[in-house]
Amino acid sequence: MTTTAAETMPLRALLARIWRDYLSRHKGSLVLSILLAAVTGLLTAALLKLLEPAVNGLFLGGTAPISLFGLVEFPASKAILWIPAAILAVAVARTLAAIGQAALVNRLGHTIVGDIQVRLFGAMIRADLARLRSQHSGGFVSSVLFDANLVREAFTSGVVTYTQNLLTLIAVLIYMGFIDWQLTMVVLLGVPMVALVLRRFGRKTRKAAVGAMTETENLSTALMENLDGVRLIKIENREAAEEARVGEVVARRQRHVIKGANARAFAGPSSDLVAYIVVAAVMAYAGWRAQSGEMTVGGFAAFIGMLLAAGQALRQVTNLATVMAEGFTAARRLFGALDIEPEIREAPDAAPLAAGPVEVVLDRVSFAYAPAADGGAPTLDQVSLRVAPGETVALVGPSGGGKSTILSLLPRFYDVTGGAVTLNGRDLRDLRLHDLREHIALVTQEPFLFDDTIANNIAYGRPGATQDQIEAAARSAAAHDFITALPQGYDTRAGEAGLRLSGGQRQRIAIARAFVKDAPILLLDEATSALDTESEALVQAALERLMQGRATLMIAHRLSTVKNANRIYVIEAGRVVEEGSHDALVAKGGLYARLARQQSLDGAPVNVETVA
Ligand SMILES: Nc1ncnc2c1ncn2[C@@H]1O[C@H](COP(=O)(O)OP(=O)(O)OP(=O)(O)O)[C@@H](O)[C@H]1O
């Protein structure tokens, strides 16, 4: 993934951004869940505080009235009723607060995950083609599926565990201070030790998290690649080899995941150890003080109970540090991905493009896929061509010459690096992107069908199209008959199931899609080259109907399909080397004539009849 500022963002800025982009909209629930977490934390400490009067009142047989938190006072004889009742009341309140807080935080956390996922997808689908092509799709998939959840975990743990445990810790320390402040000072000596443990494990988790995320990305890519290439894998008997390759990725990922899980798991017991060292110190000191009668048994019991609770809270906070480390690493990655601005953007003052016929002109267009600074050689060099409304213009030439690249420039999949493409005299880059693409229909060699009904696939570019419009388009595309012969007609699902459709049928659905769109510019990319003769005749006839009245720019490898074009441009090594009608170019005896000769079946010198 490309590095952006977000990936090295300091923690404060990261938190500020999480707050601004995701949390601030849920202020109400957030504040409420923090409040509930605080109540849970305080009530946990309160439960422990009850130990003191409980032990003193129930076991030591004192006669002095007993006070609970200075709120209720009752005679020692009633302790057996009041104390259990108080414990129960506090416990129920604590449970309710904890449940409420968990419910709020879960909803909030998952809402945020969904929010991140949708935004990520939005960024992905709007990203420049150049970027999408240069990055493994697995990276996007693992970000959407996994990274977003790591952020949620950090957030949930952050808001809930942190608030709750920190408050438990503070309340417990305060209560402890009331019981015996000197002893509390002894306890506080443990804090720097725990901080040290936390830092150490936090660093390890962070490192493991980065490694695990990269490998999750690799794993997603490997899985998708294998599914895409399943035919090749089978025909070449490479199942075992692929299994081994994926096995290696899994093993690498596992190593990081185990390291991370270990760091997380070891942090708890290590901070426990510190806590027990403190307990031991407290025992020694408290024992000594109890002997001199400065501490009651109840006080001591409550103190030790609180100490253990403090240890527990500390342990949770320790875990938290590692979960946070993972979450922030994921957040940095996510923001990194979200922050890459597409380079192909609409100008702020972009002009609308009115519906109607359009003339396309390429004026000395140059283009390179990679910037010259990165050693990118130009793919197109001073290409000039024009297509008037109603005209069909063909691009022919040797493989790799730049024909597909020319087509990609029209919908601004890429922007020219020199010269200009104009529609009705206006530079593409000055037009509204939506309007521009609305004016172009594209029929490619391998039409893509979504896993949706045939009707919806045909209406993809015009979601409001009526059934009549869809059927009319299908008739014009010579697709109506085979569609109605399908089990559910227009409601048959294509896409995954569409694999059952033949190449020609898919092609005709794509043509029907273009008919429905009814755009004034038509781009055809070798639309008939993969078909058998009969299918080709049907598709060819449909295409000819489609081309009528539009400005058509088509790529064809087979010259038979371009014979009737108004003009043919021969593209070689990124340049227009010849231009003219079929007859003129054949007569010229240059590259086109040579290609035509190569393609005539009998190898005879080409003339209009044999090429056809
Ligand atoms: N996404 C890309 N990134 C970098 N280089 C590319 C990309 N797409 C194409 N190229 C390069 O640009 C040149 C022109 O390719 P293009 O696909 O436009 O040729 P073409 O004439 O359509 O070829 P063919 O007839 O084989 O489809 C080739 O050298 C190709 O390697």
SSE blueprint:
Elements: H1 11-23, H2 27-49, H3 51-59, E1 66-68, E2 72-74, H4 79-126, H5 129-134, H6 137-179, H7 181-188, H8 190-228, H9 230-235, H10 239-291, H11 297-338, E3 360-367, E4 380-387, E5 392-396, H12 403-409, E6 418-423, E7 426-427, H13 433-438, E8 440-443, H14 454-458, H15 467-476, H16 480-484, H17 503-517, E9 521-525, H18 533-547, E10 551-555, E11 567-572, E12 575-580, H19 582-588, H20 591-599, H21 608-611
Parallel strand pairs: 5-10, 5-11, 8-9, 9-10
Antiparallel strand pairs: 1-2, 3-4, 3-6, 6-7, 11-12
Bound molecules: adenosine-5'-triphosphate.
Adenosine-5'-triphosphate binds next to helix 12.
What do you see in this structure?
This protein is α/β, with parallel strands linked by helices and 612 residues long. The protein is built from 21 helices and 12 strands. The protein has 3 domains: 7-338, Up-down Bundle (ABC transporter transmembrane region fold), CATH 1.20.1560.10; 358-439 and 521-612, P-loop containing nucleotide triphosphate hydrolases (Rossmann fold); 447-518, Rossmann fold (3-Layer(aba) Sandwich). Helix content is 61%, strand content 10%. The strands form 3 sheets. It has a 6-stranded mixed beta sheet with strand order 8-9-10-5-11-12, with helices on both faces. The protein is elongated, with a radius of gyration of 36 Å. Bound molecules: adenosine-5'-triphosphate (ATP). Adenosine-5'-triphosphate (ATP) binds at residues 133, 369, 379, 399-405.
